[in-house]
Amino acid sequence: xxxxxxxxxxxxxxxxxxxxxxxxxxxxxxxxxxxxxxxxxxxxxxxxxxxxxxxxxxxxxxxxxxxxxxxxxxxxxxxxxxxxxxxxxxxxxxxxxxxxxxxxxx
Length: 106
Known about the structure:
Elements: H1 5-16, E1 19-21, E2 29-31, E3 34-35, H2 38-43, H3 50-55, E4 60-61, H4 87-101
Antiparallel strand pairs: 1-2, 3-4
């Protein structure tokens, strides 16, 4: 049963995430947001699972003092892997490089 993807995902959430209470005036419970630093993202050559990135020390617990974060979602290209040939993330890497270089604007 431990080999079922949903079971592994739930276990990884328990291992790598813990809710924290924020100090906002509404008293909402917030959750830690993990990000991949831009320099690490631009060096990637394959899509890796959250657990692998966490184990490799690539993930960073995001804090507003770090600046802005970007959330990216895309369609999976196969049933077994989101981007088996690194097509979609390569396009995103190239777009981010152009933004950083000033050749593209958002």
